[in-house]
Specification:
This protein has 8 helices and 4 strands. It is mostly helical. The longest helix has 20 residues, at 105-124. The chain is globular, with a radius of gyration of 20 Å.
Length: 211
């Protein structure tokens, strides 16, 4: 399903971007390589769509970088193939400019970190993330890469992207692959302290006495 440019629009709440800003809406989908993503308060372009890293500090107020993995990497940081990096860039742009775009740069960063392991994993196996479902062994090994605390969020993002597949123009994991992944994911239970720790109890006593 083709995406109409008028359907796109930046949704993060920041005074640096308005409907009149050059980075508010891409002229087409996917965005052109030179489309500006982040622009600082002085009007300087900080990063563009085709960059291997998006430094989003103007919106975050601190250093915050999305690393797509197709540029020079520090030692120990696994690379991502150019094809998979382009897919990951397109997803990040969809979260930024799509009809249900993220409202905060922190949410964008969180989603990005959740799904990035899939693109590293597929790159390591020499396959496109858009064809991962054709390789059951690769998909079945995904749970071993995930911490229990991130598994549910990882699966949720993949489900959401599956629903958006017609707009994105590709599918990461299909229905059957998602079903198999969900069945294989480790369970994660939040641990709660079964008693009030002494320091908390003492603090509450001290605060309650004046009242």
């Amino acid at each position: 399903m083709p995406v109409i440019a008028s359907q796109l629009g930046f949704a993060i709440e920041t005074p640096l971007v308005s409907p009149q800003s050059p980075n508010f809406r891409p002229p087409r989908w996917p965005p052109p390589t030179n489309f500006p993503i982040a622009i600082d308060a002085n009007g300087n372009v900080v990063c563009r769509y085709g960059d291997c890293r998006w430094n989003l500090w103007p919106w975050a107020g601190k250093s915050l970088t999305l690393n797509f993995g197709d540029g020079p990497q520090r030692e120990g940081v696994p690379p991502i193939t150019a094809e998979n990096a382009n897919l990951l860039r397109q997803i990040a742009a969809w979260w930024l400019f799509g009809p249900r775009g993220v409202r905060s740069v922190g949410d964008l960063d969180h989603r990005f970190k959740l799904i990035r392991p899939l693109f590293i994993h597929c790159s390591r196996h020499g396959i496109s993330a858009a064809q991962a479902s054709r390789y059951p062994a690769v998909c079945d090994s995904l749970p071993s890469l995930l911490a229990p605390s991130t598994a549910t969020g990882f699966l949720a993002q993949l489900h959401n992207l599956f629903q958006e597949r017609d707009f994105l123009g590709f599918t990461l994991l299909d229905r059957e692959s998602l079903r198999r992944l969900e069945a294989a994911l480790p369970e994660h239970y939040e641990r709660q302290t079964p008693y009030i720790p002494p320091r908390i109890w003492s603090y509450q006593n001290r605060r309650l006495r004046p009242f």
